[in-house]
Amino acid sequence: MSGVLPIRQVEKPWGKDSLPAPFVAPAGQRIGEIWFEPPAQLPDLLVKYIFTSEKLSVQVHPSDAQTLAKGLGRQGKEECWLILAAEPGATLGIGFDRPITAQAMREAALDGSIEALMTWHEISPGDFFYIPANTVHAIGAGVSLIEVQQNSDITYRLYDYGRPRELHLEDGVAVSKGEPYATGRWHKRVAERGSHTLVNGPLFLLDQVQGAPSAAIAARYPGNLLVIPRTGPVEVAGQALAPGSCALADSIGAVRFADNGVCLLAAVCAI
Prior knowledge:
mainly beta
């Protein structure tokens, strides 16, 4: 059944006590993530806003095949990031400057030099990055973004800047690709307005649309989908949505798009 998704605010040591509108951090809390609770009709997809005041840990996620092989079920995690705001000099660490062996990666994680071995990409609003499973990555300070991901909580931390949190070196190094990030394949610039296909499977779909989607984009969403307003109004099953919200629609026909509104559409692919 269509409807607005509940929000969960998640405290993080690298979060912020002052969030951009329409979000408000509770007094005394550093909120790093805003989650939209995945609905029962679409449980395999998670949408988040992320706000950083410090660097996130250097981390990696396994693939579905790797978690299935370990008897954990289908718990792989691929994700993507659309940058909304970035302070001057803000960066994302994705992949390595040059190939690195598993042993060298483990040693670099232990002594902290892994940060200097990674490639740090300078960013600005409109940058979009897809992060395949097994890609070593870290979000830098001063970043606001929307993340769409497989709904999995398996994260292997390789390095955390001395914060007192558990690391997962053995599991993490075992699934990490010690190689440069394929920027030409996985990175693109997205105009604030206009319609653009951002992800075309194989695990999930993501499109930005301005106004009503084209017939080709609409055909990509034959069933349940998530609607994420960016600018202007949009209605799902007669319920108005504002930016900062996310809703489940049981069909694209249940969505009323404003002529000049911009929103994101997301859905899983058939497996």
